[in-house]
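In this notation, each integer encodes one residue's backbone shape. One such record reads:

___
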Amino acid sequence: MNTLCIVNGTEVSEYAQLGAFDGESACDRVRRYVDALSAPAHVICKPAARALYPDAWSSDVRESWNIAGLFDALRQAGSGYDAIFVVPGDAPFLDPELCRTMIEKHEKYFVEYSFADGFPAAVSPEILSTRILARLADLATGDTRAVGRDAIFSVVQKDINAFDVETEISAVDLRMLRITLACNTRNNFVVCKNLHDHGMLSSTASIIETIEKNGAALRGVPTYAAIQIADGFIPTVYDPFANDGRDAETSTTMPVDRVERVIDEVLTMSPECVIAMSLYGDVVRYTAIEELIAVCAARPNASFIFETAGVGWENPDRVAKASAENISWIVALDADDPELYRAIRGDGYDDAIGFAETFMDIAPEHTWVQATRMKLNEEHLDGFFRRWSERYRKRVGLDPSAIGTPSHVIIQKHDHYCGRLPDRRVCDLSPVKRYPCWHVKRDVNILLDGTVVLCREDLDREHVLGNIFRDGIEAAWSGGATYHEMHVRGAYPRLCEKCDEYYTFNF
């Protein structure tokens, strides 16, 4: 079978160019992978990335890429070949033997699309018979989405029954670990470096063995930071502070310059980290909200989340118009029936609904409404989800009844804070076999005074990791490594033993 290797270098980052693997970079290792396969190679990339790959490779260089452009490039490059196999241009652990096995099966069984499942992302190719490239290009016409790692599959699945598909299954299913062995973000780069330093080689056997034996190495840098900018909150039946005598409306706040310092500390360590405001509080209690929005807007490459109940805002349309492209707003409603809303959240129904509608009208792509799933509102949630989904779709010009289209509605599980609150869960969603906590592995939680606690469940500061103003973010983050290692061993502190949040995932 006459095959062409296409290296997808459309989104190669600075991390892929660092010589962290015995002096080689991820790009160097991709070149070595292609050489091992003795296949002709073609790279698709932006102008700045072309020099990272051999001049002898043919190329398609464009200023910008989207999914439609990707499939146009694949169709053109595949002309004259029986099949193409596409690999990421920033993956240091691509396995040549796995690729050969998949190509052999692709040819033997006359397959049209082959992919691997159960492996970490970025260790295997996707193989496409060239006879289907024109059809796929038609399916991708007008698709302006960015070229993510699932770009090819996202188009194939639009009409998946029309194609002969072969799946290469991993001997051990590692999907639950959500590992991407590519140097595309600081976190993924650090994890790749950690695993390399534990002796991992570019073979599936070595990859599986190293990951299974070195779970602590999978903790990289923070990917989600929750900052308490105000301790004032909007009471609900599931708020951990609603019954401790605290005045919900009297709020202590973190000054803007200190918030800015925290943001910059976090982004210096982890530039792709998603930053959420406000841990344990509501952003409506932050008196300098427009100044805070300006701070976030001044960092356009970062992503921020503002959470609010939508109650108490004096001029929500002004805030919506002042908000920035890199800020997502989550409006916690829990119900859109007045009586049910009052039972869960008390007064403020009209304000909350009005706020959500205003933001959905002015900034629909940056607004999500949220409900916490509880016994109180379980029967109501289907209608809640449908009504707000339809409102969003109408606003952005989508078919309101179309299945699979975006909804911008979040249904969140109930958190009883390690037994501190009554258990209002509808059902127990916890896994049969416990595994290390996602939040200890990926999140950092920063309180008003800069104290970094183990997680958001640590309401009484039992496990303080440091202080960001005194120690810096890296020292505080390192303080959590011991707890993650304990989880990997199956040993849990008392707080963690009672926790039901370890399997939930932020970013």
Summary: The chain has two domains: 3-176, 224-498. The CA atoms of residues 117 and 169 lie 5 Å apart. Residues 224-498 form a domain with the TIM Barrel fold (CATH 3.20.20.70).
